[in-house]
Structures are given as structure tokens and as C-alpha cells.
Amino acid sequence: MPIVTSLTKMLGIRIPVVQGGMQWVGVPQLVAAVSNAGGLGVLTALTQPNPEALRVAIRETRKLTDKPFGVNITLLPSINPPDYAGYAKVAVEEGVRIFETAGNNPKKLVEYFKANGCKVIHKCTTIRHAKAGARMGVDALSIDGFECAGHPGEEDIGGLVLLARAASEIGIPYIASGGIANGRGLAAVLALGAVGANMGTRFMCTVESPIHQNIKEKIVASNEQDTVHIFRTLHNTARVYKNKISQEVVAIESRPGGAKFEDVRELVSGARGRKVYELGDPDYGIWTAGIGMGLIHDIPTCKDLLTTIERDAEEIIRGLGQMVVPERQAKL
Ligand SMILES: Cc1cc2nc3c(=O)[nH]c(=O)nc-3n(C[C@H](O)[C@H](O)[C@H](O)COP(=O)(O)O)c2cc1C
């Protein structure tokens, strides 16, 4: 008996779980494994060096699954922005009809996707931005609480309050994101009015995730204490794994007079972060992880993970239903 929500109906998936875009991690083998297991896998466009490489990745994914999958386009603050429109065009040409947008104002992309009959899920971290996304005409929001890996915004509001506010104030469906890693989390966010859950860190630590085994084992050995916020003082906060490099960045930011991006540029370079996943050295650079690590104790296949999440969420939801009894049966 599957859990049916407006997300499962909108996307044509069995389990209301989305694997959020993840730089260097959201590649065909993981995306296809998530979609084959009944969730929604999402390819990360900017992991591909250019739009044509994204075309190849989409074709590769399609060879591995006949189930729906999406493409994430993350709009970064950048002096030389990537060719966002080019990535979007290629994905639409290749038949992708589900997009996750994140970061800076995605208005132009949303208009393009909607004109091409696509479903758009926009990721945001505040109720204000969620409302702006709804006005833009996106189909659903993905609301990232303070618990999340990556960019939680600057307002530090946890999912419990964000999601409950969304339930009464956002007129369109929303999925919950940040710190969700098991069936209990999925059941909890459904109770908070979400139509599904978005997970990042949990999917990094699966058999099909492309990162080095050492890093997966490091996640299993870590807990919710093992992340740190960098770029706080630059107003571009990012929750990353607490290692030598991220602690050095925080120390530089804490110096009297603060720090400029130039002061930490070399330490935080994306190329170094990518090497962490290739070499399996958790101290080589900055890598993204969320406090959901406290809930991750294994490295399952995506199939086993999603089957367990679905089963556990169903059991919890049924159990909660049993708490409600007729007045005459309630022994006070
Ligand atoms: C390794 C990693 C890389 C990520 N890269 C991106 C990205 O490029 N774009 C994006 O929108 N979100 C990115 N995220 C955020 C996830 O899509 C998701 O919102 C977040 O992981 C949810 O929090 P959780 O990790 O607690 O589940 C990344 C997360 C991780 C763990």
C-alpha cells in the first residue's frame, strides 16, 4: 500500500522522496538508482562541464532507467555565471520534464520550463522566498530547514517551524528538506503538511553514490556534531563537513577585521572538494554534509534504503492513526 501524495501524483513516482541536486554526486548512476527504487533521482547540471556534457549524462541516465528523473539547476552568485539557459535548453531538448531550481532568482528559467510543459520544484530556505517562488508559478517548493547540507540561508530557522508555517501560508505543495534520512523523518514532514521529503546527505551514503568508499564510511562514523558553517561572515553560509580545512576557514573568518573571499579562495576551491570524493581523503578540501549524518548508520543500495524508508513511514503513520480512539475507549 503506497503512500500517495500530490508529489507522487505530479511526478509519477511511487515513494514521495526526492534526491536533491548534489554537486559532484548527482550523476547518472545515482540518479537512475533512486528513480528505479521508486523515488525521484535528480541530475546536477553544473556537475557537467557544459550543456553538451549534460546531454550525454541525460542519455546515460535514460539508458539506466525508464522511470522519471529530474535535473537540478543551481543559480550561484558568480562573476562569470555558467550557461544556465544552455543547460536548461539541452535538458528540455532531451525530454526532461522535471526540474529542481535552487539559489538566486530563477524567474527566467521557470518561465522557460513552464512554457515547455515542465514541472518545477524550487528550493528555498525562507517563507518569504517560498511565497516569491509560488508567485513565480513553480509547481512545488522544496523548503530547506537549517538542518540541511549546503546553503541553509542566513536566518537559521529549523524545519519544524518553517514547515508548519508553510502549511498555513503557502498555497502550493511543498516538500521538506534538511535533516531527513529515514522513514521517521518522512512521516514527520508529512505530518507537517509536506507532500514528500528531499534528501541529500542520506543519498551520498549509498552503494550507488559515486563518492569514494572512505567518505561513505566517514559519514557512517560521524554524527550531527560533525558539521560546521563556513562563509557565515560573507553572508553565504554553507553547512559542510567539519574537517581541518573547514575549521581553518572558520578561523580565518573569525580574525579581527574579518575575511574577504580572496582570503579563503584557495582553501574552499571546488576542485579540492571534488578530490575528497575521488581520493577518499576527508581532509583534502571542503565537502558538503548535513546534520542528518547523526541518523546514517549504513551504506545501503538505493533500493534497500527507499524500501525501508517507505515501510517505516507507513508503519509510523498507521501507528499514529491508532492513537486516535473513540472517547469511550480512552482511559484517562
Ligand atoms: C554533497 C552535496 C552537494 C550538494 N550540492 C547541491 C547543489 O549543487 N545544488 C543544490 O541545490 N543543492 C545541493 N545540495 C543540497 C541538497 O540538494 C539538499 O537540499 C540537502 O542536502 C538537504 O539536506 P540533507 O543533506 O540534510 O538531506 C547538496 C548537498 C550535498 C550533501
UniProtKB/TrEMBL annotation:
<dbReference type="Pfam" id="PF03060">
    <property type="entry name" value="NMO"/>
</dbReference>
<dbReference type="InterPro" id="IPR013785">
    <property type="entry name" value="Aldolase_TIM"/>
</dbReference>
<keyword id="KW-0288">FMN</keyword>
<protein>
    <submittedName>
        <fullName>Inosine monophosphate dehydrogenase</fullName>
    </submittedName>
</protein>
<dbReference type="InterPro" id="IPR004136">
    <property type="entry name" value="NMO"/>
</dbReference>
<dbReference type="GO" id="GO:0018580">
    <property type="term" value="F:nitronate monooxygenase activity"/>
</dbReference>
<keyword id="KW-0560">Oxidoreductase</keyword>
<keyword id="KW-0285">Flavoprotein</keyword>
